[in-house]
Amino acid sequence: MPLSRRREAHKNRRPVVNDIVNSFLLIYAGLFPIVNPIGGAPIFLGLTRHCTDDERHATAARVAVNGFFLLLGSLFVGSHVLEFFGITLPVVRIAGGMVVTAFGWKLLHAGEELEDQRAANASGRPVAPTDAFYPLTMPLTVGPGSISVAITLGSQRPKEAADLAHLALLGGAAVAGLAAIAITIYVCYRFAESIVAVLGERGTNVVVRLSAFILLCIGIQIIWSGWSALAGAAH
Question: What pTM was estimated for this model as a whole?
Answer without folding.
Answer: 0.71
